[in-house]
Amino acid sequence: MRIGLYPGTFDPVTLGHTDIIQRAMALVDRLVIGVAINRDKGPLFTLEERVAMVEAECAAIIEKTGGEIVVHPFENLLIDCSRDVGATIIIRGLRAVADFEYEFQMVGMNRALDSSIETVFMMADARRQAIASKLVKEIARLGGDVSKFVTPPVQAALAAKYG
Question: Among 22, 27, 43, 139, which has the highest number of CB atoms less than 10 A from its own CB?
């Protein structure tokens, strides 16, 4: 069984994330969505809220693809999380050249830690390349319309956080 790990903070999960999740399902038998506990980023949503949002968004993808998706919170090294869930592939989404520079460094470090785990980069769909959770939160905080970037349930969750 080919197991892939798609890690991120998903604060919140966006249409860019779900685009990568849907396309990654064609590459693996089981996709583990690693929801990172990253205290340095100071997430808007709690871990439990982020996990619930990702699970809700993935339910429709599972129904559509018939594939297996597991949501897995983690706080350890990405490479250790990969081992924990049996993943041999790490899926990473790329939006722009700036993403590549950071991801290139991460791949080098991860390969040094465990060369048996491969990283696969997927370019975000052209319509989704500008979407970043940080920007979505800023737009929502300032009262802007985020409906082009997130699903209605995520939009409602953002509205509830920002009142």
Answer: 43
